[in-house]
Design brief:
263 residues, mainly alpha, two-stranded parallel sheet, two-stranded antiparallel ribbon, 9 helices, 59% helix
């Protein structure tokens, strides 16, 4: 094992026997609480033109739609061979199995639904959600790290960490790479843009595009899903989906410029 750090973090925060409080779940709770606070701040700054009382409804809608999208994408895109033979596990999320790309589709659907119900521009809703929710990616990836899951590829570099679930060899802590790039750096970029853009849709487009770029890069360090492996011998499903996200980000940017809905 050399001098590499051995991951020994306990994923369970509180164990009461029949009831457990896990770090992973707590991370998501913290992320959504902060998102609610930031959304209310955007309302007070007149960026998000909706009443503060509507924020809790928006957050609840997003949680439900994100969960459905994340689970559906994982089941049908990443692991349908298994679930087609184990239908009783379709809802067993405690065993793992959520896809960010599916969660994003769910969030977009939830944003469209909320926008229509409140007679808002869909781009205004999605810009606000992107600004408020991107920080949650940091907490989610930290939850993955504490769980010792979604670890990276084997490496001999000093930054390698030995994850018990990944065997005896040191691996890239790709969860931490994602936490920094997708959660911290991307949040800083979006909030930097907030005071500089004059139309809705640009921030949402940048979120989609930059996330695609950052995740595409991290996929070179992240261990691909064992049931999928590599496509064409060198690219992962995550990278394929991220490439589509980059294209979608460019398309959304062009669409936002065309619509020209002023803030």
């Amino acid at each position: 094992m050399g001098n590499h750090y051995v991951h020994q973090l306990n994923p369970v925060l509180i164990d009461l026997g029949a009831v457990q409080v896990r770090w992973y779940g707590l991370m998501y709770v913290v992320g959504f609480i902060i998102a609610g606070i930031l959304l209310k701040l955007l309302v007070k700054q007149h960026f998000f033109k909706v009443s503060v009382e509507k924020i809790d409804t928006l957050v609840t809608t997003m949680i439900i739609c994100m969960f459905i999208g994340a689970r559906a994408a994982y089941v049908f895109i990443y692991n349908w061979d298994y679930y087609s033979q184990n239908l009783t596990d379709l809802l067993a999320v405690w065993k793992g199995g959520l896809s960010f790309h599916g969660a994003l589709v769910g969030l977009i659907f939830g944003g469209v639904l909320f926008a229509r119900q409140n007679k808002l521009s869909w781009m205004e809703v999605m810009d606000s959600v992107a600004l408020a929710g991107t920080q949650g990616l940091f907490f989610g990836r930290m939850g993955n790290f504490i769980n010792g899951e979604l670890y990276g590829r084997i490496t001999n570099s000093p930054v390698g960490i030995i994850f018990p679930q990944g065997g005896p060899f040191p691996r890239h802590a790709s969860q931490l790479y994602e936490a920094f790039l997708e959660g911290i750096l991307l949040s800083l970029i979006l909030w930097f843009l907030k005071s500089r853009v004059k139309i809705y849709g640009i921030i949402g487009a940048c979120f989609v595009g930059f996330y695609g770029v950052f995740r595409f890069i991290v996929e070179f360090f992240r261990e691909p899903d064992s049931q999928l492996g590599y496509y064409f011998g060198f690219i992962t499903m995550g990278q394929i989906l991220c490439f589509l996200m980059i294209l979608a980000g460019v398309g959304l940017y062009i669409y936002a410029k065309k619509k020209n809905v002023t803030i």
